[in-house]
């Protein structure tokens, strides 16, 4: 399975509608692959919030309207923040049947003052939402548990934020591109839900991403997907005795590494879902890059910086690149492919040959891991 074309929009508030953003991303990915829409056999669409925030369902058929005469199958997928990763995973499976498919994801999050209410719908309605356990509260509970178990501090979380903002400042598509965010700004930002500050939380934004995926290698810029795994768990946070021990993440990672015939030590660059900064540390451990409690040492020593032993989130991550929910999982895989192509510009990780993208939905209902090779 190969990625032969990709396109990521500029993340940030835009006057474009959601279908217009997604259409533009599709056109960009087709151009990058030197193909036309008639060459595609199926499309996988990721979106989470359009029905509630834009009053628009059935996005596959809406997108078909941008391509007159298009009658191929278009599948719509939703898995909260993990929809993009699930779309890529489903596309990988479909390449046993098709020769060439396209994945696209997008979100328009600047359209409604009620967006936080809509996002809360990705939590368990019966057990969590009604008790006020929205995502910042759930993230804060996970952060507090991690601090208690391993001695992490709010300063450690600020180091994650600072690293990702440094990277995002080099990414022209990032929400925070060209914005110099300092440690002082991060540590002086207001507390949202203790111990999480404003700059520990990812940025809701507008954006879209698309990729062309093929069964075989067609050009020298094609990047191979050698592992694709997806695991699911409940999203009732009250059932989690230890929110830092993520069995579904461990399973998805184990399955992906087994498919790729690689170990975590073989990975040279990673995009790790960082909806909240402590989550990046927690997931580093659950993906088996380091032992329990060791991610704190890694961030303090700079191991996850762009020039460290395992560069994490060179794009800026969800924190600084931004988090248009339906697009994120595709954007993460596209970033790894861009890095392996050697086309990441100022944020390029030197000599990267292998990479991993980890995307999740809710905390954590869907865990999706992709491993790529140049």
From TrEMBL:
CDD domains the UniProt entry points to: SCP-x_thiolase
Xref: InterPro entries: Thiolase, Thiolase-like, Thiolase_C_2, Thiolase_N
Any Pfam family matching the protein: Thiolase_C_1
Residue ranges constituting the Thiolase N-terminal domain according to the UniProt record: 13-213
Domain (Thiolase C-terminal): residue spans on this chain: 231-373
GO molecular function, one term: acyltransferase activity, transferring groups other than amino-acyl groups
Record lineage: Bacteria, Candidatus Wirthbacteria
Organism: Candidatus Wirthbacteria bacterium CG2_30_54_11
UniProt protein name: Acetyl-CoA acetyltransferase
